[in-house]
From TrEMBL:
<comment type="similarity">
    <text>Belongs to the TonB-dependent receptor family.</text>
</comment>
<keyword id="KW-0798">TonB box</keyword>
<dbReference type="GO" id="GO:0009279">
    <property type="term" value="C:cell outer membrane"/>
</dbReference>
<keyword id="KW-1134">Transmembrane beta strand</keyword>
<keyword id="KW-0813">Transport</keyword>
<feature type="domain" description="TonB-dependent receptor plug">
    <location>
        <begin position="57"/>
        <end position="181"/>
    </location>
</feature>
<dbReference type="InterPro" id="IPR039426">
    <property type="entry name" value="TonB-dep_rcpt-like"/>
</dbReference>
<keyword id="KW-0410">Iron transport</keyword>
<dbReference type="InterPro" id="IPR023997">
    <property type="entry name" value="TonB-dep_OMP_SusC/RagA_CS"/>
</dbReference>
<dbReference type="GO" id="GO:0006826">
    <property type="term" value="P:iron ion transport"/>
</dbReference>
<feature type="signal peptide">
    <location>
        <begin position="1"/>
        <end position="22"/>
    </location>
</feature>
<dbReference type="InterPro" id="IPR000531">
    <property type="entry name" value="Beta-barrel_TonB"/>
</dbReference>
<dbReference type="InterPro" id="IPR036942">
    <property type="entry name" value="Beta-barrel_TonB_sf"/>
</dbReference>
<keyword id="KW-0472">Membrane</keyword>
<keyword id="KW-0408">Iron</keyword>
<protein>
    <submittedName>
        <fullName>TonB-linked outer membrane protein, SusC/RagA family</fullName>
    </submittedName>
</protein>
<dbReference type="Pfam" id="PF00593">
    <property type="entry name" value="TonB_dep_Rec_b-barrel"/>
</dbReference>
Length: 992
């Protein structure tokens, strides 16, 4: 790299040059990466990447602009080693579970990375509906993905995202950054010649279902019933052919072979007058789904002068999702102003406003009013059109059409009558003042806010399976967070030594309140108001306030721009801890050595070699109201519920200790770069809830205990194999591996005992054992002999039942990888991105139920056997202890119902390895001489796609699966997952 480039970059860091592009333009053409790149670190402090002793990966604006995602976080999937974006597959809002370097906490919600916007942390709070994904038979409601804080961030307003992976990188942000942080920097006005620049970005995309389960359409509804002639038959209601077989949800009826049976007649709502052709309706599930459409239009205005930068942005996004009558619209406004009041005083502000509305978002999970539930129970011989009238004639609004079961709601009633609405307003922003006393000493004061105001409505009509007299709910949620920071900075050069010091303090206050009103039953049909309630349940608002006061400091030193050392310290005082443990201190230290400069190794082929290492310790405070006994509101007015969890007045903070080391290389005139990092993270003294003796009057108690260790490797590679005037090829790849180990548990779980972190559907358990890993899935498995043969019960002919649960697998992959390619061919740009994972397991409730009912292709095995029986492949245990082949035939319904029963976790759990073509784009940028007469400075047309192709052995919709339990995204479980979208769209970008 040329010396003048280095000087310009150094001046930029000192604030003497405002635009880094000048340096970039003077670099050699074949430079793939600017090794002096500036990245945003903790507290918004800008640093040279070479000076950091930890990993800070940067994702630039073009990633979010080029591939339009409703949620910016999904655009980062596969691009950063160690970063995982997990959604619950629950509809268009796609709330994200963002984690870095694996799972560290026994609390599933305690593993999220911190999201920071323009230096101000977001609370990232999520309020659920209070229900779990598996709710069959409970008579209650279902979870709904109504979006979380990051959903409101507009991708078009993002300038860059810097990923700080370890505790060292985010040490100055305190306990909430113990799992790393994503530093979002929004755009600000930067133009040339003090001219106003107007940018317009418009896109339209279309969604279709990426992958379907393998539905079978060879056999119809029934349970192997035979008529008087000994033949399999079907009859909707009792008929001359025999008793009714039309009330079952199973598809073990007759084969579709040209027969005629008495079937359902939609004209009369009863049995057909004559026998009708027995035939399949192969579009009776897929035909319900529509082509989704999303349009997004963004216009921004920006200008900059010597003293002022200004930008304003307006974006409207309209989403019509693939499920009929679902989707949302979002209006974003972003405002940025930076003004140099005097030569010493600068003030800046950034505000973002998001208004998100939806008349209906889909419910997810396994319960009556979920469309997933309908898809599971829909039979091959049932025409989807039979449901379209929705209401029985003369019973409009009172009694729905669901002719095959009163437990299965009409799909069109689910879509058009069971409405889940939301109106959400969110404001984030900050005001920052900076005063430079002289070239060495400055002070910064920043005040940031996050304000959420959300109203939710839930409507359930008469005759819905769980609410025969209807239901209406209103929820009002406010979440306000205020962050105030004072940062003092000192810089001084001593010949070859350079020292900078930052010291400051912050006050963070969070206030959360939810009001909940429920109308259990409606007096008047269709009147969704609280005044129309048969029984009105009003819950007293439950506050959840917390405050953290902090002081912190950072000292950075470097020698000759070749050796760098950072030392940080932070002390927090948390309101969620008792007085004696409320104050806790945690330090970090990191260093980097530019070996290529130290040993004079730089040359035309070997350009850059950096060695880095860091160590950090972070304290983690608990949630509010864990110290004392607090009563909660009851459904009965004027009453309260005693807590079921015993508090801990002596609660201590958790300890998170992180150590990492790595190297960065740059070769062949910086056209090839390689980074490798090794890390270890120990989370000790965790705040967990464990069962306690019922005699105590409580079900659980809160304690400090348990240790989890994560070790891993991260690698990334970037290269420019070809670069000339008319053609260039950029390629980048990343790979990460994480190994998680539980090294200690509370004494109550010593020996072979296990601690159940969570459970799903009453059959899948997330058990923690010493030596095991977070994410270990436990449940009943098949009984096998020493040879691995399945052992059958000689009397029943069905698999023998185990007497204890065992480990089935782990919810998290063994490794993940991503690959991006960018080609530039004259005015064309072609880019595409693959990513995937190896390993990981997930339990599927959909697979269990559809296999039990004979709805999937693999259940066709044995259908042609005489008398509808099958012999399970395996052995039986003889009286002498030996084994012999199983020979007992059982009915197909008994076999599939038992082999794939809900409690048999082994047969319903599958490998979640996959490879996805995550995104692709072809763009054409018009040359300057073509667009200049139009007064344009840039015009680009593009077509793009997302989730275009997938390879996986996972049998359901998507291997990237998780269950939405209340507000918790639980990996490793598919409980009524909704389909994943394949997206194709086009885009226009212009500037003038």
């Amino acid at each position: 790299m040329r010396k003048e480039t280095q000087k310009l970059l150094l001046l930029s860091l000192l604030g003497l040059v405002s635009v880094n592009m000048a340096a970039q333009q003077n670099t050699k053409k074949d430079t793939v990466k600017n090794i002096d790149e500036v990245v945003v670190t903790a507290l918004g402090i800008k640093r040279q990447d070479k000076s950091l002793g930890y990993v800070a990966e940067k994702v630039n604006a073009d990633v979010f602009e080029n591939i339009q995602n409703n949620n910016w976080a999904q655009g980062m999937e596969g691009r950063v080693a160690g970063l995982k974006i997990q959604t619950a597959g629950a509809g268009p809002m796609a709330s994200s579970r963002i984690t870095l370097r694996g799972e560290k906490s026994f609390n599933l919600d305690g593993n999220y990375a911190l999201i920071v916007v323009d230096g101000v942390p977001l609370s990232n709070s999520t309020t659920g509906t209070g229900t779990e994904a598996y709710g069959a038979g409970t008579g209650g409601d279902l979870p709904i993905d109504l979006g979380n804080g990051p959903n409101s961030i507009n991708p078009d307003d993002i300038e860059s995202v810097t990923v700080l992976k370890g505790a060292s990188a985010a040490a100055l942000y305190g306990s909430r950054a113990a799992n790393g942080a994503l530093m979002i920097t929004t755009k600000s006005g930067k133009t040339k010649n003090a001219k106003m620049r107007v940018s317009f970005n418009s896109s339209m995309s279309f969604d279709s279902v990426l992958k379907w389960p393998d539905y079978q359409y060879e056999y119809g509804q029934g349970t192997l019933a035979k008529n008087s002639a000994g033949e399999f038959y079907y009859s909707y209601g009792a008929s001359a052919d025999g008793v009714s077989t039309g009330g079952t949800s199973s598809a073990f009826g007759p084969k579709f072979d040209g027969q005629y049976y008495y079937q359902y007649d939609p004209a009369t709502g009863g049995q057909s007058a004559e026998r009708k052709l027995w035939r399949p309706y192969k579009d009776n599930i897929k035909g319900f789904w529509e082509t989704g459409m999303t349009s997004s239009n963004n216009v921004s205005f920006e200008n900059s002068t010597e003293r002022t930068n200004f930008r304003a942005s307006f974006t409207y996004l309209d989403n019509k999702w693939m499920m009929p009558n679902t989707g949302f619209d979002r209006f974003n406004v972003a405002f940025s102003l930076d003004h140099k009041v005097t030569d010493k005083f600068r003030i800046s502000t950034k505000f973002n406003y998001a208004n998100t509305k939806s008349d209906n978002l889909p419910a997810t999970g396994y319960n009556n009013q979920s469309i997933s539930y309908f898809m599971i129970f829909q039979n091959p011989n049932v025409d989807l059109n039979w449901y379209k009238p929705l209401w029985k004639q003369g019973q409009e609004g009172i009694d729905q059409i669901h002719p095959f079961s009163s437990y299965i709601d009409n799909p069109y009633m689910i879509a058009y009558q069971m409405l889940n609405g939301v109106a959400k307003k969110m404001v984030t922003g900050n005001v920052t003042g900076t005063y430079d006393f002289n070239k060495n000493f400055s002070v910064m004061l920043r005040s940031g806010i996050e304000m959420l105001d959300e109203k939710r409505t839930t409507k359930r009509p008469y005759s819905s399976a769980n609410y025969l007299k209807g239901f209406y709910r209103e929820q009002y949620i406010t979440n306000n967070e205020f962050n105030n920071d004072l940062l003092i900075t000192f810089k001084k050069d001593f010949n070859k030594f350079n020292i900078s010091a930052n010291a400051g303090g912050s006050i963070r206050y969070n206030q959360y309140v939810m009001n909940d009103y429920r109308a259990e039953g409606l007096k008047v049909v269709g009147d969704y108001s609280l005044n129309n309630a048969i029984s009105l349940i009003t819950k007293v608002p439950k506050p959840s306030d917390q405050q953290t006061n902090s002081v912190y400091g950072l000292v950075s030193a470097n020698y000759d721009n070749k050796i760098f050392l950072d030392v940080t310290g932070r002390n927090d005082w948390s309101s969620t801890l008792p007085v004696e443990y409320r104050s806790f201190f945690y330090p970090s230290v990191s260093t980097s050595f530019i070996l290529s400069d130290l040993f004079g190794l730089s040359g035309s082929n070997f350009n850059y070699w950096k060695l880095r290492a860091s160590w950090a310790k972070v304290g983690v405070a608990g949630s509010p109201y864990m110290l004392d006994k607090y009563y909660s509101t009851s459904d009965f007015q004027g009453s309260a519920l005693t807590p079921g969890t015993y508090p801990n007045p002596n609660l201590k903070p958790e300890d998170n200790t992180n150590i990492e080391a790595g190297m960065d290389f740059s070769l062949l005139k910086n056209r090839l770069t390689y980074n490798v990092t090794l890390y270890q993270n120990d989370t000790d003294n965790q705040i967990i809830t464990i069962p306690t003796l019922l005699e105590s009057g409580y079900s659980y108690r809160i304690i400090n205990s348990g240790n989890v260790r994560n070790r891993g490797v991260e690698m990334s590679l970037s290269a420019i194999p070809v670069k000339n005037k008319n053609f260039s090829w950029n390629i980048s790849a990343n790979w990460s591996l994480n190994r998680n180990k539980i090294t200690s548990l509370p004494p109550e779980f010593a020996g072979e005992s296990y601690y159940t972190i969570s459970s799903v559907a009453g059959v899948l358990y997330y058990n923690a054992v010493v030596g095991g890993s977070l994410g270990d899935l436990y449940g009943f498995k098949l009984v096998r002999n020493a040879n691995g043969d399945v052992v059958y019960d000689a009397n029943t002919g069905l698999p023998s039942r185990p007497d204890r649960v065992e480990k089935v697998g782990n919810a998290f992959p063994k490794w993940r990888a991503g690959l991006q390619n960018d080609f530039k061919i004259k005015n064309f740009t072609i880019s595409f991105s693959f990513d995937g994972q190896y390993g990981g397991m997930a339990y599927s409730q959909t697979h269990h139920k559809m296999s039990e009912q004979g709805k999937l292709e693999h259940t066709l095995v044995g259908r042609d056997n005489p008398n509808g029986t099958i012999v399970g492949q395996g052995v039986v245990l003889n009286s002498d202890g030996s084994y012999s082949p199983n020979t007992k035939a059982v009915s197909l319904t008994s076999y599939y119902g038992d082999y794939y029963r809900r409690a048999n976790v082994e047969t319903n759990t599958f490998d979640t390895s996959f490879v996805k073509l995550r995104d692709a784009r072809i763009a054409y940028s018009f040359s300057k001489d073509v667009i200049a007469p139009l007064k344009l400075t840039e015009l680009t047309l593009a077509v793009f796609g997302k989730n275009l192709w997938m390879w996986t052995k996972f049998p359901m919709f998507d291997p990237e699966v998780a269950a939405l339990n209340d507000s918790t995204i639980t990996p490793g479980a598919e409980i009524g997952q909704l389909p994943t979208a394949r997206t194709v769209g086009f885009q226009v970008n212009l500037k003038f």
